[in-house]
Amino acid sequence: MAATRKRDLVSIDDLGNAEIESLFALADDLGGDRKAARELARGLILVTLFYEPSTRTRLSFEAAMLRLGGSYQSCPNMDDTSAAKGESLADTMRVVGRYGDVVVLRHPREGSARVAGRYSPVPVVNAGDGGREHPTQTLVDLYTIARDKGKLDGLCVAFTGDLRYGRTVHSLAYALARFGADIVCLPAKGLELPHHVVRKLESEFGCYPVKLTPEDLEGAFERTDGLLITAGRPFQPDLFSTAERRSAIRRRLSHLDVLYVTRVQKERLEGEAVGDLPVVNLELLAEPRFRQALVLHPLPRVNEIAYEVDDDPRARYFTQVERGVPMRMAILAHVLGLRELPIVDGARKRRPQTSPPPLYRSDLGLRCPSPRCITATERAYLVPEFFVLERRPLRLRCAFCDVLLEPTLVASRIERVFHRFDSPHASKIRLPNLVVFDSVESAKRAGFRAGEPAEVGR
Ligand code: NCD
Fold this sequence. Notes:
The protein is an alpha/beta fold. It is 30% helix and 17% strand.
């Protein structure tokens, strides 16, 4: 058999829209025909490595592997493993990837799944990397929406709760944007969608953020700092008068297809003040805009949804749980190469994404400043990597945790002279020779000298 590339699932962007829809069809197949599924992974082992608590994700992956006829290995408590002795993530992955055929990893650091995929000899599936992404929950969420609404295109989906650290929100927002959905953000104060997520929705998926007013939001959420992130630019100011614009926005908000509720990720808070949100109860759901809205939640629920909602037909969070097993059977069958993805309704089996921006990688100079980034702890072997989104002004995105940076100083590692990013010298430096600094001091400390003083500035 010809060697195929190892299939990791680190980000929802690793799958094209057509592949996502094919996974729904595969989940239908595998979930519907237990007999056909139960020989598929015979003799194969799944390793579940969870450095953070989990009920659904771990158990549903293990159930999925058992239903496929395979078996699994798990560490009940990562504090009882060599991680507690200081073993790096890279070495752990090199080891467990020699025991199992696929690894499902949950880890508190942003970008950990990408590192794991790089060092594991077998496919790695990201079951949540810090507050960054949770692509398999997104597949479960999309599967539920697609099967309940009969479509994924052109929906209007509201997110409420913790949009800052809620990794399920980030992955789902990226996927929905690719399917042309409008996204309404109704965050608790202090837990707004991170800047880098909004920028990515804008720059990569052509979405346009519009701030919402209390009049736009009237009702339970009117005191929220709401944002409408809309596909295309239908509400841009130059095309409409203010009044026309406001009434178009209000019309859009008058019918929501999904209300996606999340809990505050209190384990990720660092003492920041966080506001309250209205509890989702039957009174709130009586607002006309929620008449047709599916109420989704990745769970666990703490107190965001009143228990009285559970029996309402719009409450679909336990249906999400139920669909988690067939969807994760499909994910395992796909990454293990056990089943070709079915072709769905003319959807082509190719990845529609544009090619990623150029990568800047350097052991000298700038490091990601985020304390949550995997590069902050696994320093002994990880070289900083950034996607170069723009050269003038210089805009970089950490290739591990996605954080955006706008450093001002660049240098050539050959001449060892640094310049401002907008100087004529800066644009001549070729990417393989580029070194980026965040301050004059750090450039000098690294043994680089200033170009023209006027160019470097301070
Ligand atoms: C979510 C997670 O871990 O990100 N849970 C899950 O996987 N279903 C949501 C959460 O913990 O709030």
